[in-house]
Amino acid sequence: LSIFGDHSDVMATRMTGFAMLSSASVQEAHDMALISQAATLRSRIPFLHFFDGFRTSHEVSKISLIPDEHIRAMIDDELVFAHRQRALNPDRPVIRGTAQNPDVYFQGRETVNPYYAATPGIVQELMDQLGQLTGRPYRLFDYYGAPDAERVIVLMGSGAQTAIETTQYLAEQGEKVGIIQVRLYRPFSTEHLLAAMPASTKAVAVLDRTKEPGANGEPLYQDVLTSLLESLNEGRLGEMPKLIGGRYGLSSKEFTPAMVKAIYDELAKEKPKNHFTIGIFDDLTQSSLEFDPSFTLQEEGMTQALFFGLGADGTVGANKNSIKIIGENTDMYAQGYFVYDSKKSGSQTVSHLRFGKRPIRRPYLVQEADFVACHKFNFTEKVDMLKYAKPGATFLLNSPYSPEEVWDQLPLPMQEALIDKELKFYVIDASKVARDTGMGSRINTIMQTCFFALSGVLPRDEAIAQIKKAIEKTYFKKGKAVIEQNFKAVDHALDHLHEVSIPGKASSTIGIAEVVPARAPEFVREVTARMMKGEGDQLPVSMIPADGTYPSGTTKWEKRNIADVVPVWEPDLCIQCGNCSFVCPHSVIRAKFYHKDLLAEAPEGFPSARINARGFPETRYTLQVYLEDCTGCTLCVEACPAVSLTEPDLKAINMRDKEPVLEQEKKNVQFFETLPMNDRSKVDFAAVRGAQFL
Q: If I label 156, which of 38, 87, 222, 630 is the partner at 20 to 30 A Cα–Cα?
C-alpha cells in the first residue's frame, strides 16, 4: 500500500467507459478541469480528469486563472439544460440500469460506439477554443523536441514536464530526441498519436507510472503498441519503429532529467532493453537502467531553496506563504513542493522552493540549492543536508549555540562541506526567540523573516511588510493576540540573526550519528536504518521483502530525539497513579516494580521510590522516561495530580531542557530494560494505576 502518487489507481478504472483526461501541472489541472466539463456535456461521455497525487495535487505554483467570461464562453447553456433534462425525474418517468437478457444486451453495448468515436474530436475542438481564449493551446498528444527526432518518449502526467524540459535541452545540443505527452488517454486516438509522432522516428520508449504483474506490458505501452501495429497493418504507418516500455515513478519515486537522458541513451542502442525500470536499482531481475545523478539542468535567474523542518513547527505553512508573497508581489514565477514522511506532527519535513523569471517546469525535488535552512539543530547529526547546497550558497541554522560556540558543535562532514563549498553560514536561536515572544515551539515566521533577509528575493522592508500581511490573513480567525505574537517574532528575528566566521580547517570530533545501535537486528541495521537516514531510494530490490512482510516492533530502534524540553520524574513527589503513562501517546513513560537488590547494578543517579502498595515488601518502583522518543507534547505534566506543597509549580513530573539530562537518561534506559518484566498476576489492570505496568 502507498498513499503517494502514481497511476496504479487510475489505471484500474480504464475499463469503466469513462473518458480519461490527464494533466501534468498545476496550470494544466486548472485548464483541463474546464475542458473536461465542457467535453462531457458535448460528448455525453463521463470524464475522469486526473493528475498526479502529491506531486501535482500538493504543489503550490503561480498560474494564470481563466477569467469567468472565458468559462462562460466554453460552457453551452443549452447543453447544460439538456443534461439536466436527462436526469431521473418523477415528472418524466423512465427506467435506467435495466437487467437485460442475451437477446438484446450485446446490441445495446454497441450503441455507444458513435459517442466514443466522436469524443477525441470534441476534446480537441475545445482545446483549440481554450487556446484561442487564453493563449495556452493544447493537443490530445502534444509533441516537444527536435522536428526530425529519431528517439521519442511517450508518457503522461507530471513526469512529462521533466521529460519536456530535458528533451528541449538535449535537442538544443543537437540530439534528435522528442517527447509525446498524452493528455486524452481514453478514448485512445490512434489518429492523433500518429499525427504527433515525427515521420523520422526510429525508436520509441513508452513510460508507465504503474505496474501490472503478469501482463505482457503496462497499459500505455500496450495502447501505443497496438496503435502502431494496427496502423502498420492498415498501411497508415510506413515502418514500425523499435518500441520498448518502462516503469518509473511508482509511489512518487523521483523522476529526474538524469533519468530522461538515460532512457534516450538506451533508445540509441541497437537492442534497447524492453520492460525496463528507471529510478531504482533492480539487482534481482536486472530490469533497471543506470543513470548519472550528476546530470542536472541549470537555469539562469532561478533561485532554489531547501528547508528542513519538524512537523507542526510551522515551516511548511510559512513556506507556502513565502511562495504566495513572491508570486503575488513580483513578476517572478514560484513553485513549492513539500515532502513529509508518514508520521504526523514531529516528523521531518523538507520544503522545496523555486523562484524564477520563467514558468517553472520542474516536478522533481531540488537537487542544487542556493539556500539551505535547517530548522532543527539535531538534524545536523542525522541528515547530510549540505550535499544539496551549491558552491557559494547560504546556510541558515536554528541553533541553541552562539555564533562563537556553534562551529565546535557541528559534525565533521558539515564543517568540511561549509569549507569546501565556501558557503555563507548564519545562525539564529529561533527557539529562544519563539519562547520569548510567546510563540511556543512555532519558529516559522522567525525563520521565514531570516530567509527573506538573506536570500534577497525581495527588499528586506518590503518582505517584512508582506510577511505581516500574510500573518494577518493566515491567523485572522485565531484572534488579535496571536497576530501580535507573530508580529513581535518577526520584529525580533533579525536582531538575533548572526553570521558565523568559517575557519579554514575542519576540527570537529563529532560524526554523523548512527541511527540504530549495533545490537539491532540485521534487517533493522541494513534496511530500516537506511530508510530512517533518508537513504531508502538507494536500497536495491533484493533488500525489500517480496511479500510485504516486515518485522514488528521496529519503532523501538528509531530514536528521533526531536523534543527540546522533556519530562523529568520527581520520585519523592510521585503518588504512582499511572496517569502520565496512561496519557502518553508515544509510550515514552513506562513503569516497573522490582526487588530492591537489583539496584546494585544500577548506574549512578538512577531514580527509584518505594512502591506505594501493600503486599510488595522490599520492592522499588521506577517511572522511566524514554527521552529520545518524546515529542514534548506536555500531556504527562497536565495529567499529573501530584503537586509540591512548598512549590506550587513543581509536580511529580515536569518539563525540563533535554540536553543536561539526556546522557544520564540514556544510561538509565539501558539499565531499566534489564529489569524483569512486571509480574502481571499481581496487578489489577482494570484501573489506570495498574495499566501502567502492562
A: 38
Q: β-strand 498-499 against 242-248: which pairing, if any? A: unpaired
Overall number of domains in the chain = 5
Type of residue at 377? F
CA 325 to centroid of chain Cα atoms: 22
Residue 205 and residue 264: Cα distance in Å, rounded? 8
Give the per-residue pLDDT at 311.
82
pLDDT at 127: 98
> H helices of 310-459, where?
315-329, 412-420, 430-436, 444-455
Closest CA to 310 of 471, 195, 434, 220: 434
Close Cβ partners of 362 (under 8 Å, ≥ 6 residues apart)? 161, 162, 165, 335, 354
How far apart CA 485 and CA 317 sit, in angstroms, is 16
671 CA to centre of own chain: 38
- Residue 395: its pLDDT value, please? 98
* Edge-first strand listing for the sheet containing 242-248: 141-145, 177-182, 151-155, 203-208, 242-248, 276-278
| Predicted local distance difference test score (pLDDT) of residue 345 | 65
Of the candidates 492, 309, 510, the residue with the CA atom closest to the CA atom of residue 396:
309
Query: Euclidean distance between the first and final Cα of the chain, in Å?
Result: 31
Of 138, 157, 245, 148, give the one whose Cα is nearest residue 202: 148
Over residues 85-137, the pLDDT tens digits come to: 999 999 999 999 899 999 999 999 999 999 999 999 999 999 999 999 999 99
What is the 3-state secondary structure of 306-336? Answer: EEEEECCCCHHHHHHHHHHHHHHHCCCEEEE
Strands (E), 15-147: 19-22, 47-50, 60-61, 141-145
Parallel, antiparallel or unpaired: strands 184-186 and 19-22: antiparallel
d(CA 511, CA 459): 38
Q: Which domain covers residue 552, as residue numbers?
A: 522-557
Supply 467's cell numbers.
510577511
The b-or-e profile of 516-549 (16+ CB within 10 A means b, else e) is beeebeeebbebbbbbbbbeeeeeebeeeeeeee
Smallest CA-to-CA distance from 450 within 426, 434, 474, 471 is with 426
pLDDT tens digit string along 37-57?
A: 999 999 999 999 999 999 999
Dist CA 496 CA 275 (whole Å): 56
Peptide bond into 187 cis (omega under 30): yes
Residue 528 and residue 543 share a domain: yes
Query: In terms of domains, do 438 and 552 share one?
Result: no
CA distances 217 to 9, 17, 209, Å, are 17, 21, 12
Within 8 A by CB and 6+ apart from 109, the residues are none
* Residue 335, C-beta contacts closer than 8 angstroms, at least 6 positions apart: 59, 60, 61, 62, 323, 353, 354, 355, 360, 362
Residues 6+ apart with CB under 8 A from 320: 60, 336, 338
Provide CB contacts within 8 A for 312, sequence distance 6+: 344, 345, 346, 441
- Here the CATH number for the domain that contains residue 550 is 4.10.780.10
Is beta strand 203-208 parallel, antiparallel or unpaired with respect to 151-155?
parallel
Three-state SS at 507? coil
| 46 in any annotated domain | yes
Q: Are 123 and 182 in contact (CB under 8 A)?
A: no
- Per-residue pLDDT of 632-681, as tens digits, reads 999 999 999 999 999 999 999 999 999 899 999 999 999 999 999 998 88
Q: Are residues 542 and 687 in the same domain?
A: no
The string of pLDDT tens digits covering residues 460-473 is 889 899 999 988 98
Residues 463 and 438 in one domain: yes
Q: Which residue ranges in the chain fall short of pLDDT 70?
A: 344-346
Query: Which runs of consecutive H residues, i.e. helices, occur in 5-92?
Result: 8-11, 26-43, 68-74, 77-85
Task: State the cell numbers at 427.
Answer: 545562525
Q: How far is CA 239 from CA 104, 204, 266, in A?
A: 42, 13, 20
